[in-house]
Amino acid sequence: MRGCKRPPMESAPAPVTPEKLPAPLSPDPRIELVGLTRAELKAELERIGKKPFRAGQLWHWIYHQGATDFTKMSTLSKEFRVSLAETHKVTRPAVATEQRSQDGTRKWLFRFHDGKEVETVYIPEEDRGAVCISSQVGCTLSCTFCHTGTMALVRNLSPAEMVGQFMAARDSYGEWPSPTDGGRMLSNIVMMGMGEPLFNYENVAKALQIIMDHEGISLSKRRITLSTSGVVPEIHRCGEELGVNLAISLHAIRDDLRDVLVPINKKWPIAELLQACRDYPTANNARRITFEYVMLKGVNDTDADAYELVRLIRGIPAKINLIPFNPWPGAPYECSSGNRIRAFAEIVNNAGYSSPVRTPRGQDIMAACGQLKSASERDRKSRPGAIV
Ligand code: SAH
Ligand code: SF4
Questions:
Q1: What is the best residue among 133, 137, 144, 146 to mutate for testing ligand 1's pocket, by most ligand atoms within 8 Å of CB?
Q2: CA–centroid distance, residue 168 to ligand 1 (Å)
Q3: Distance of CA 369 to CAs 34, 84, 294, Å?
Q4: Domain spans of the chain?
């Protein structure tokens, strides 16, 4: 277990890819196919006079093969490929920058057609790894320990923009066609980037359904975790309709403190949130709910807090993910000491809950939890010709 080390925040390594800036705000009128559900893709093909079975062929090329060039889609007639390329497109978000941490973590700043940007992070393990996907540009919520929360929401991301983050990350590793033998480097998805996914539920659901589709990317729901600050009404839906793993940003065991740290608590307080967890359809011992708990020095990290935490979640199949607070410029908190985190973890562990301490990853490129986006705002200010 490691305590937090303050990252050398002003000396992050330079991006390794040359910036392709400023990206033209292309008025490309062609219709994007990425992000359409199967039903929408069928409907689109019918609209242009094609048989519905063509949707299956296109789906395979787009999501199994990872093709972006219609001319390569050899099972389609040449004529169809040419006409499709005139009216439709299969694209990825533009890579504004790509940074690589000393620990192997990769962070991309992706730019969309309107110039808005989000960050996506890939955290490799030995033979697998998780892609941390953003669901919104910024966040409407303002959790006081989160850097993303200091920016105003600009907008929700579309299904194409979320699926596109994952596909672009896989491009970067050449992980196409989609491996069927389980040997994937980009093996997991965590919806833990910028934004509150359950405030953009419809689009998030479409994106994840596309990613889980068995004839395409085919990532199992067991390998996808959605993290929420506690949008209670959507939690049940998420379990019923998507069946993905659930992570809850708990961070406090008393409403008065959680009201400050995670202000959405004023709307859906701890008791309601925990009830939603008890009711979560897929929660069982094999698929436990993760409670995320950021360790803030002198704020939520006493032994008494740890005892109360395990009392509160009793009966819920759960694990507690202790996250050393990742600092950012001007943050009003400090991370608890390594000893404090260890003592807290021990109490939780002794109560029978697994309590891994999340090792901060990619801190040298501001890619750790809660550090996203603001870094790109800072980048933008110093980038000549940048689109703001
Ligand atoms: N909006 C969602 C998902 C994105 S945040 C949510 O809040 O759950 C992903 C995780 O990072 C959350 O658990 C969040 O509480 C945590 N986090 C945010 N800022 C952090 C920081 N500065 N240090 C450590 N963890 C942080
Ligand atoms: Fe938004 Fe999550 Fe950050 Fe809170 S912790 S401000 S919900 S991104």
A1: 146
A2: 23
A3: 28, 41, 10
A4: 35-89, 94-382
CATH code that applies to domain 94-382: 3.20.20.70
Residue with the smallest CA separation from ligand 2 atom 4 is 143
Tokens of residue 239, six digits: 């379990």
Residue 345: CB within 6 Å of ligand 1? no
Q: Give backbone dihedrals phi and psi of 276, rounded to 5 degrees, phi first.
A: -60, -35
Q: Are 186 and 122 in contact (CB under 8 A)?
A: yes
Which of 142, 148, 154, 264 should be mutated for ligand 2, with most atoms under 8 A from CB? 148
Residues involved in catalysis: 119, 369
| Cα atoms in the 13 Å half-sphere on the side-chain side of 33 | 28
Q: Which ligand is nearest to the CA of 142?
A: 2
**Hey, whose CA ends up nearest to atom 6 of ligand 2?**
149
Give, as one character, the DSSP assignment of residue 359.
Answer: P
Regarding the beta carbon of 326 and ligand 1, being less than 6 Å apart is answered: yes
pTM: 0.89
**Which amino acid residue places its CA nearest to atom 18 of ligand 1?**
370
- Token digits for 208? 């994840």
Residue 26 alpha carbon to ligand 1 centre in Å: 33
- Measured by CA distance, the residue closest to atom 1 of ligand 1 is 196
pLDDT tens by residue, 176-189: 998 877 789 999 99
The ligand 2 atom nearest the CA atom of 148: 3
Of all helices (H) and strands (E), which one includes residue 312?
helix 303-312
Contact 300, 334 (CB under 8 A): no
> Block means of pLDDT (10 residues each) for the chain, length 388 residues?
32 40 64 97 95 95 97 95 96 95 93 93 93 94 90 87 98 91 89 96 98 96 97 96 97 98 98 97 84 98 98 95 92 96 97 88 72 46 26
CA atoms of 63 and 208, how far apart (whole Å): 13
Topology, domain 35-89:
DNA polymerase; domain 1 (1.10.150)
Q: Which amino acid would we find at residue 378?
A: R
Q: With b meaning 16 or more CB within 10 Å and e meaning fewer, what string describes 313-349? A: beebbbebbbbbbbbbeebebebbebebbeebbebbe
